[in-house]
Amino acid sequence: MRVLVLHSHPVEESYGKTLYRQTLDSLRQAGHEVDGCDLYAENFDPVLSRHDRLAYHDYPGNTELVKSYVERLKRAEGLVLVTPIWNFGFPAILKGYFDRVWLPGVSFELVDGKVESRLRHIRKLAAVLTYGATPFRAFAAGNPPKKIVKRVLRAQINPLRPVTFLAHYDMNNCTPETRARFLARVKTSMENF
Question: Boundaries of each Flavodoxin-like fold domain copy (predicted)?
Answer without folding.
Answer: 1-140
